[in-house]
Design brief:
Blueprint (H helix, E strand, L loop, with lengths): L14 E5 L2 H4 L3 H8 L2 E4 L8 E5 L5 H11 L2 E7 L16 E5 L12 H8 L5 H16 L19 E5 L6 H5 L4 H14 L5 E4 L2 H4 L16 E4 L5 H7 E6 L3 H8 L5 E2 L12 E2 L12 H11 L2 E4 L4 E3 L1 H18 L4 E3 L3 H11 L6 E2 L3 H6 L4 E4 L11 E5 L16 E5 L12 H8 L5 H17 L18 E5 L6 H6 L6 H11 L4 E5 L2 H4 L15 E2 L5 H5 L4 E4 L4 H7 L3 E4 L12 E2 L13 H11 L1 E5 L4 E3 L1 H10 L7 H12 L9
Parallel strand pairs: 1-2, 1-3, 3-4, 6-7, 6-9, 7-8, 9-10, 10-11, 14-15, 14-16, 16-17, 19-20, 19-22, 20-21, 22-23, 23-24
Antiparallel strand pairs: 4-5, 5-12, 12-13, 17-18, 18-25, 25-26
Length: 670
C-alpha cells in the first residue's frame, strides 16, 4: 500500500501544492495522481511553511526551488515510480505511479530522501508486506515487467556466461547526482574486464538511446573482440539470468539485478546501494543497515510509491498496478506489429479492432496465401479454421464474455488466443492445456488472488453470459442439473464423443441416476431459436428450466452433467460435483468425474486454484469497455457486477432479430 495514501481512508484534507512546471498544470495523469494523493495543485506564491512541487532534479526544478527559498516553503519532489509504462514517457505514455518525496529525491545521495529514511529506520518486519514483496518480485519476473516493458521477452540474448555492464543516458539525473560522467563509465568498463579476464562483456544500451531520444555513455567505438554493445529490446530478466556479474553506475536495472539474485558492482550512489546487497565503489557512509532483498523491495516498491489504477481512477496497491501493467504489456507485445485476421464475421470486426488493433489497425483477409504475404501475425476465428490455417493463431470468446449472448451480437469483454490449438478441441494440445499443467503448484500470492477471484465471481453470481432468470421450483431430493448445449457447436463436434446430443446426455444421466431429481437446462441460444439442439425433455427430466440463469440453478443442485459445456467449470467454482461425458478443457485433472474419452496426456491432478488461474487469469485477454484498454480479469468482473458493459447498437440488434427469424438457415452466415 502507498505510504502517502490509504485507499480505505482517503486524504483528510488536500494540501495546496504550488508548481511552476507545465507537466503538473496540465490535466494529465501526473496531476491526477498528485491530486488523489491529497494535494491541491495550484499556481501562485506559497505561504511560509507551504509546499512547492518540482519534478525531481529536472531543468525546471530551479524555478520551484527559488520560490521555496524566498518564501520559506518546503520542496516536494516528484518522480516517476519504478514501474512506469510500456513505452518511455517521451513517447507520450502516462505513468502508473509517482514517487512523492518531502525530504529529497531518491537518486540524489547528497540529502537523505523519504525512501532512504524508510529503508534506514522502518522495521520492515511486517510479515504480510514481506510476503507481498516476495510475490511481487516473482510476478515481475514471470511477466517480464520492468520500468519500461516494450520489449519481446522471447527475443534472444547471447549465450550465458557474459558480464553485464549497464549503460545510461547522458545527463541522467541519477548519474549527475552520483557525481559520475563518461570517465566513470569507462572506469566501470575497465574494472569489469579486469575482474573477469577472458569473459565476454555485454554493454546493455538504454531504451531511450536505442529509440533515438538521448545518447548513452557507450557507443560502437567502445566495442572490441570481447566487448559487445547490445541494443536489442530484450527482457532484463533474461539478461540477468545469463549474466555472471552485473556492473552499473546508478541504473534502475541494478535494482532489478538485486531482485534477480545478483550482487551488482555499483559505481554510483543509487538508492539501492549501501544496504548490504551491492558491492559499492563509492559507499554512502550514513547507510549502515543490512537489508534482505524482500525488505529493500518492500520499502522501494510497496511503502514508498504512490500507485495509480487507471481503470478505477484511484490510488491502489502494488499488486494491482502490476496486473494493470502486465495486461497492457501483454497486449502491446502481441499486437504492436499488427494482425491480419481471417474468418471474422463482419459484426465482430469492430470489437476485434478495439482489442487487437489499438497499436496498429488490423487487416482482414480471407485468402490464406495473401494473409501470409502481409508479413504480420495471423489469426483466424477458431470455428472457421480450416485447411490452410494450420499456422494461424486461433481466436475465440473468453469465459467471462458479456451480459447477453454472442448470438445476439453483443461484443465480448474477453477473448482467447491460442497458438497451439483451441481449448475445446481435445484432439491436440491447446495453449490452455499447457497453462493448466504449469499451474499444478502456485505461489501463495497466486493462490490468494485465485481465492479472491472465485469469491468475487460467486458472490456476484457471474457466469459467461450473465443472463437473468429465476430458478423454478424444484422438488426435494438429490438434485442433478443436466446442461444442454448447441448441438452443432464446435465443442460438441470435436469434444463430445459418443454422447453428442442433448437428449442422449439426459438419457445417460437418467440411466445413471434413476432416483435423482433431474433438472434439464436448455442452452440460451437454443431457447432463443438461434441455434440447433431443441427437443422435448419432459419425458426424462423432472423439471425443464426454461429461461433460467445457470447460476441460479447451481446453488440448488448436488451434481451437474455435461458433455463439454463451460457450465461444468462454473459448477466447479461453486463446489458442485461435475460429471462429464465428453472431454472439456477442465476434464482429466482430477476435479471431475469423467465418463468420456479424455486424452491420456491430461490424466494428472491439478488443484482447482491452478485450473482457475490458468483458465481465467493466464489464458484470456480482457478488454475494459470504459477505458478502451487491456485490463486484468478483476476489472471485467467489476464491470459485469456494475452492469458497465457494452450493449449492441441498433444495427446489431436488427441483425440479431433477422438471424432469429432465419435461424433454420444459419449456415448462410455462420
Amino acid at each position: 500500500m502507498s505510504a502517502q495514501y490509504d485507499p480505505a481512508a482517503g486524504p483528510e484534507k488536500a494540501r495546496r501544492l504550488y508548481v511552476y512546471n507545465g507537466g503538473f498544470l496540465a490535466r494529465g495523469r501526473v496531476r491526477r495522481i498528485v491530486e488523489l494523493a491529497g494535494y491541491d495543485v495550484s499556481i501562485g506564491l506559497p505561504d511560509p511553511d507551504g509546499l512547492v512541487g518540482v519534478w525531481g532534479n529536472s531543468p525546471t526544478a530551479h524555478r520551484g526551488e527559488a520560490v521555496a527559498s524566498r518564501r520559506d516553503a518546503s520542496v516536494v519532489r516528484v518522480e516517476d515510480a519504478f514501474l512506469r509504462s510500456v513505452l518511455p514517457g517521451r513517447t507520450g505514455s502516462p505513468p502508473l505511479g509517482l514517487l512523492i518525496d518531502h525530504k529529497g529525491v531518491h537518486f540524489d545521495p547528497s540529502t537523505p530522501s523519504d525512501l532512504e529514511e524508510l529503508l534506514a529506520n522502518d522495521p520492515l518486519d511486517d510479515t504480510a508486506i514481506l510476503n507481498s514483496a516476495r510475490g511481487a518480485m516473482a510476478r515481475m519476473q514471470e511477466a517480464h515487467l520492468s520500468k519500461y516493458t516494450g520489449f519481446d521477452p522471447e527475443a534472444s540474448v547471447p549465450d550465458p556466461g557474459y558480464v553485464l555492464v549497464i549503460d545510461q543516458t547522458q545527463g541522467d539525473a541519477s548519474v549527475t547526482a552520483s557525481g559520475a560522467d563518461r570517465n566513470r563509465f569507462l572506469e566501470m568498463l575497465f574494472v569489469a574486464q579486469d575482474e573477469h579476464p577472458g569473459a565476454r562483456i555485454l554493454i546493455k544500451s538504454h531504451p531511450e538511446t536505442v529509440q533515438g531520444f538521448r545518447e548513452g555513455y557507450f557507443g560502437p567505438d567502445d566495442c572490441t573482440d570481447r566487448v559487445l554493445l547490445h541494443t536489442d529490446a530484450v527482457s532484463p530478466w533474461t539478461l540477468m539470468e545469463g549474466a555472471v556479474a552485473v556492473y552499473t553506475v546508478s541504473s534502475g536495472l541494478g535494482f532489478e539485478a538485486i531482485i534477480a539474485g545478483h550482487k551488482p558492482r555499483v559505481f554510483g550512489q543509487p538508492f539501492y546501494a549501501g544496504w548490504g546487497l551491492t558491492q559499492d565503489e563509492f559507499p554512502v557512509q550514513r547507510r549502515q543497515r543490512s537489508l534482505t532483498r524482500a525488505q529493500l523491495f518492500a520499502g522501494a516498491m510497496i511503502l514508498y510509491p504512490t500507485w495509480y489504477d487507471p481503470h478505477r481512477d484511484a490510488l491502489c496497491d502494488l499488486p494491482t498496478v502490476i496486473e494493470v501493467l502486465a495486461a497492457e504489456t501483454r497486449a502491446w507485445r502481441a499486437d504492436h506489429r499488427g494482425w491480419v485476421a481471417s474468418g471474422m464475421r463482419l459484426w465482430k470486426r469492430k470489437p476485434l479492432q478495439q482489442v487487437f488493433g489499438r497499436f496498429k489497425p488490423m487487416r482482414f483477409e480471407e485468402d490464406p496465401a495473401r494473409a501470409r504475404m502481409l508479413g504480420r501475425p495471423w489469426m483466424v476465428w477458431a470455428g472457421k479454421a480450416d485447411v490452410g490455417h494450420e499456422d494461424a493463431v486461433r481466436v475465440e470468446d473468453g469465459f467471462l464474455r458479456s451480459r447477453g449472448l454472442g448470438a445476439e451480437l453483443i461484443p465480448p469483454l474477453s477473448l482467447v488466443t491460442d497458438d497451439l490449438g483451441i481449448y475445446y478441441d481435445p484432439a491436440r494440445p491447446s495453449r490452455l492445456e499447457h497453462l493448466i499443467r504449469s499451474r499444478r503448484t502456485l505461489r501463495p500470492d497466486q493462490t490468494l488472488r485465485v481465492e479472491r477471484l472465485i469469491r468475487s465471481l460467486t458472490e456476484a453470481g457471474l457466469s459467461k453470459y450473465n443472463l437473468s432468470g429465476d430458478a423454478p421450483d424444484v422438488p426435494s431430493g438429490r438434485r442433478g442439473l443436466v446442461v444442454g448445449q448447441v448441438e452443432d457447436d464446435a465443442s460438441i463436434r470435436l469434444g463430445a464423443g459418443d454422447i453428442c446430443t442433448n437428449r442422449a446426455l439426459l438419457e445417460a444421466a437418467r440411466a445413471a441416476r434413476p432416483d435423482d431429481v433431474l433438472i434439464y437446462k436448455p442452452h440460451p441460444d437454443v431457447e432463443a431459436g438461434l441455434r440447433d439442439g431443441a427437443f422435448d425433455a419432459s419425458d426424462l427430466a423432472d423439471v425443464v428450466a426454461d429461461g433460467t440463469d445457470i447460476v441460479a440453478l447451481l446453488s440448488q443442485v448436488n451434481e451437474l452433467w455435461t458433455m463439454t459445456s463451460l457450465s461444468g467449470f462454473e459448477a466447479l467454482l461453486r463446489g458442485v460435483h461435475v460429471v462429464t461425458t465428453g472431454a472439456p478443457f477442465y476434464a482429466g485433472w482430477g476435479l471431475t468425474e469423467d465418463l468420456g474419452n479424455v486424452p491420456p496426456r491430461r490424466r494428472e491432478d491439478v488443484p482447482l486454484a491452478g485450473l482457475v488461474h490458468a483458465t481465467l487469469i493466464d489464458y484470456p485477454r480482457y478488454f475494459d469497455p470504459v477505458t478502451g484498454t487491456a485490463c486484468p480479469v478483476e476489472v471485467v468482473v467489476e464491470r459485469l457486477r456494475q452492469g458497465d458493459v457494452p450493449r449492441p447498437g441498433f444495427a446489431n440488434r436488427t441483425l440479431s432479430k433477422i438471424q432469429g427469424l432465419l435461424a433454420s438457415r444459419a449456415h448462410w452466415w455462420r
